[in-house]
């Protein structure tokens, strides 16, 4: 079953409980930038939850090496092959390579749910601060570069340290999910919910992605002050 099948089923369904989400267990998840800390952590957690995962990198051999280190049946491939073979693709590349990576994968990502989790940040002697792309956010830049893809935004506020720690069974956090089509955000919420302790929460359209991406700068300050790996919880939902 592809993401299109899952989304079409969701569109046909009558109004339902907002926490009634589609079954995404059969989807292949690609992680572009899967050799970086956040990408590796997401790949590890999703594979551990039973998802089929492919790590992508500019160099296929680097992806294959990272996949071999992680185990759990994770595969490694070049970015283009990763995008082609995956049903849903998480973008976890560094901000300075974001636009160039996506521009080169427009054809391979056409028709697919693309989950952008990139946080445009700058750093100086005062610490981390948010950058604002010309398009408004990293997710909106992705949507502009990938007009034939179904771009969403999620997984911004996760600690790479916690994601990669095999001693930690559950990740105690909510994932804010943004996108233009509710059927697509439902799929991403369901994917987040595959990871023990994690919950996907719908947080609006892509025009609201900038403040979600920017909040990471505040979390970095929290973590430095309290020597923690802070996440987020949305209360009363």
TrEMBL record:
Keywords: Oxidoreductase. GO terms for molecular function: coenzyme F420 binding; cupric reductase (NADH) activity; ferric-chelate reductase (NADPH) activity; NADP binding; oxidoreductase activity, acting on NAD(P)H. Residues 29-120 form the Pyrroline-5-carboxylate reductase catalytic N-terminal domain. GO terms for biological process: copper ion import; NADPH regeneration. The keyword Oxidoreductase applies. GO terms for cellular component: plasma membrane. Signal peptide: none annotated. The keyword Metal-binding does not apply. This is NADPH-dependent F420 reductase. It comes from Streptomyces telluris.
């Amino acid at each position: 079953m592809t993401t299109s099948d899952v989304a079409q089923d969701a569109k046909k369904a009558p109004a339902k409980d907002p926490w009634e989400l589609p079954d995404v267990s059969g989807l292949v998840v690609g992680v572009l930038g899967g050799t970086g800390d956040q990408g590796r952590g997401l790949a590890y957690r999703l594979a551990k939850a039973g998802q089929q995962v492919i790590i992508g990198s500019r160099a296929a051999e680097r992806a294959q090496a990272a996949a071999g280190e992680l185990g759990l049946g994770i595969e490694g491939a070049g970015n283009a092959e990763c995008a082609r073979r995956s049903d849903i693709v998480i973008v976890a590349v560094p901000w300075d390579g974001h636009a160039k990576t996506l521009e080169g994968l427009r054809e391979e990502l056409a028709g697919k749910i693309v989950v952008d989790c990139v946080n445009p940040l700058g750093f100086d002697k005062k610490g981390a601060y948010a950058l604002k792309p010309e398009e408004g956010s990293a997710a909106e830049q992705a949507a502009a570069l990938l007009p034939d893809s179904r771009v969403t935004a999620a997984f911004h506020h996760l600690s790479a340290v916690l994601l990669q720690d095999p001693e930690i069974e559950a990740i105690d956090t909510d994932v804010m999910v943004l996108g233009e089509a509710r059927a697509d955000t439902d799929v991403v919420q369901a994917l987040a919910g595959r990871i023990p302790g994690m919950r996907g929460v719908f947080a609006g359209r892509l025009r609201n992605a900038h403040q979600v991406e920017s909040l990471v700068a505040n979390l970095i300050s929290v973590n430095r002050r309290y020597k923690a790996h802070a996440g987020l919880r949305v209360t009363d939902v």
